[in-house]
Design goal:
Layout: H1 2-9, H2 13-30, H3 32-35, H4 66-102, H5 104-118, H6 122-133, H7 137-164, H8 167-174, H9 179-216, H10 227-233, H11 246-270
Helix pairs in contact: 2-4, 2-11, 4-5, 4-7, 4-9, 5-7, 6-7, 7-9, 9-10, 9-11, 10-11
Length: 277
C-alpha cells in the first residue's frame, strides 16, 4: 500500500485525474440502484420535462428520469464494454502468443484468418452480423470481441515474436518445457506492459463502438439504459437549445479521456523514461 501511495504521489496531475474519473465511474456503476431515486425503466413524469428540483436533469422522450438513466447507463455500458474487452484479449492475446511461440504453419494460418477479418470495416461488419444474428447482449459481446480481437492479436504477436527468439526461451525449450509453460512463464510476463496499456486503449475503442452501435439502434436494446441510445432518444432537444442529450455524450467523452490519461502514464512508467521537472 505504501508503494502504491508513493507511486500516486509521484504521478502527474493528468494520471491522478484519470484515476479519479475511473474510480468515480466504477463507484456509480456499482451502486447505481442505491444512488438513483427511481427504477431504470420507471416512467415518472411527462415527456421531456425540464430540469427541476424533482428531476435534476429532466426526463427523456418517454418520461423516465434522466439522472437515473445516466447512472444505470454507466453500469450497463461500462460493464458490457469491460466484459467484451476481456473476451477480446482472451481470444486475440492467446492466439497472438501462440502464433509467435509456435511459428511456422500455425502462425501463417492464424495470421491469414486475422487478415481476412481486418479487411472488412469493423462498423459495417458488426452491423451486418448483428442484423443477421440478432442484437441480444451475448451476441453483441461475442461479435464485438471477435472483431476487436484481431487488433489484440496483431499487437500480441508482434511483441511475442521478439521475445520468443530470446535465449531464455530457447533454454526453456531445450529443458523440455511444454508450450503452456513457455507461454505462461516466459513469453507472457515479458509481454505484459504493452498488453496492459493496449487493454486500456481497447476498452475505450470497445466502449465507443458499443455506444455508436446503440446510437444506430443495433447495440444495447431498450429499455436497458445505455448512453449511446440516450443520445439518440433525446437528440431532438438540441433543436430547442436544450443540452440534455449532451450529458450522456459528455459521460462517454470524460471516461475516454480519463482512461487515456492513465494509459499514457502507464506507458511512460513502463518505458523507463525520466520525468523532467
Amino acid at each position: 500500500m505504501a508503494q502504491i501511495l508513493k507511486l500516486l504521489r509521484s504521478s502527474p496531475w493528468s494520471a491522478r485525474f484519470g484515476l479519479a474519473v475511473i474510480v468515480f465511474y466504477i463507484f456509480i456503476a456499482t451502486f447505481a440502484p442505491v444512488l438513483t431515486p427511481y427504477g431504470e425503466t420507471d416512467i415518472v413524469g411527462s415527456e421531456f420535462e425540464p430540469w427541476s428540483a424533482e428531476f435534476m436533469f429532466g426526463t427523456d422522450n418517454l418520461g423516465r428520469d434522466m439522472l437515473t438513466r445516466l447512472l444505470y447507463g454507466a453500469r450497463n455500458t461500462i460493464g458490457i464494454a469491460f466484459v467484451t474487452t476481456c473476451l477480446a484479449f482472451l481470444i486475440g492475446g492467446l492466439s497472438g502468443l501462440l502464433a509467435a511461440t509456435l511459428g511456422g504453419w500455425a502462425d501463417q494460418a492464424l495470421s491469414r484468418v486475422v487478415d481476412v477479418l481486418m479487411a472488412f470495416p469493423p462498423l459495417i461488419f458488426a452491423l451486418l452480423l448483428l442484423t443477421i444474428l440478432g442484437t441480444s447482449i451475448p451476441v453483441l459481446v461475442v461479435v464485438i470481441a471477435v472483431l476487436d480481437s484481431t487488433r489484440v492479436y496483431r499487437l500480441a504477436r508482434a511483441v511475442a515474436m521478439n521475445i520468443a527468439v530470446m535465449d531464455f526461451v530457447e533454454v526453456a525449450r531445450l529443458r523440455g518445457e511444454g508450450l503452456g509453460w513457455i507461454i505462461g512463464r516466459e513469453v507472457l510476463p515479458n509481454s505484459l506492459p504493452p498488453l496492459v496499456a493496449e487493454f486500456g486503449l481497447r476498452f475505450c475503442f470497445v466502449f465507443l463502438f458499443i455506444s455508436a452501435l446503440s446510437f444506430l439502434g443495433l447495440g444495447i436494446q431498450p429499455p436497458t439504459a445505455d448512453w449511446g441510445s440516450m443520445v439518440r432518444d433525446n437528440a431532438t432537444l438540441i433543436t430547442y437549445g436544450d443540452i440534455t442529450p449532451l450529458l450522456p455524450a459528455g459521460a462517454i467523452a470524460l471516461l475516454t479521456v480519463g482512461v487515456n490519461f492513465v494509459v499514457d502514464w502507464f506507458l511512460h512508467k513502463t518505458a523507463g523514461l525520466r520525468d523532467d521537472q
